[in-house]
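Retro notes, item 3 of 5
We never archived the inputs for the iron/sulfur cluster complex last cycle. Fixing that now. Sequence and ligand:
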Amino acid sequence: MNNNKINRLLNKALDFEFLSPDEGLLLFYEASLPELMLYADALRKKLHPGNTVSYIIDRNINLTNVCFSNCLFCNFCRKKKDSDAYVLGIEEYKRKIDELYSAGGNQILLQGGMNPALDIDFYTNLFKQLKSVYPDLKLHALGPPEIVFIASKAGISIESTLDRLIEAGLDSLPGAGAEVLSDRVRKLLSPAKCSSEEWLEVMRIAHLKGLTTSATMMFGHLETPEERILHLVKIREIQSQKPDLSKGFISFTLWPLAGKNTALMRKYPEIKPVYQHEFLRMLALSRLMLVNIPNIQASWLTMGKNVGQLSLFAGANDMSSVMIEENVVSQAGKNYTLGVDEMEKTISDSGFIPQRRNQEYHIL
Ligand code: SF4
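Structure as it came back at the time:
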């Protein structure tokens, strides 16, 4: 092991220089967890000098569980004929959004399956209807796979699809469905979803239109370390191409596979769970590779509160959301929850000042 080389690379990231894929890989294999965390924490302090950690109150609403995609890691999707298949009606939205407003939030993360019965008119009508009832509601909605699906069903371009959705009320685009941006992996995990190039292209176009987006990676399944690093590099490159006035990827969230009782684990029983040590290494490395993305979230929802707290010393500056409802990873064995009081206590017990934020990361 070459300690000088490792130190040089860690300092390069600390100076906001891009690490190459080979350099990232070298750190992945050779740097120790304390080294990675120390430098990721130092970089986070440069980006966020105050001793604060932010969080948001929002609600995840899954608009339908009907999906043709059959991703191997998904226990949430249903066929149309299944007895528990659903498409939410407006009264359900109102009940859920009223609860969100009572809890002090005004953003919904609105996602669902790729339901062949729902077309672009369905989504634009839904967005308009929700905005007419709740004019200040923020719609953090859909994701690149759904955008590609809606565009192809309508026979129109990604540009036109985004234009119509923005006009109807779409405020920001979550980075859902990225998994690992390698077509080799995607063919094994989720062959019906958009390709990695399509995922990146949707985000590139969204940034051109000034839509704020987020980036994600779900790891710990069939990917190689090289594919993890290349995923980060691809995201970083799209971020480099955004117009100056666009925020682009405002955040990055890393989470491990939640695979309990999924077809993926039946097919590949050799997949090992991601342990805390591995998660924190990958999180710190993500902070160091993604120097042009301002916010890194701590993934307490999938890793639990304690790892969420440790994440705040491995590059994360945001505890993400007090999710009033979560239906997807909870159906694959991950079921952690935090109320507002507990969220604030979790942050202050870690030595930081909790700050509530909105979807644009402005402190409230
Ligand atoms: S993860 Fe999403 S796209 Fe894949 S099957 Fe489940 S609902 Fe469908």
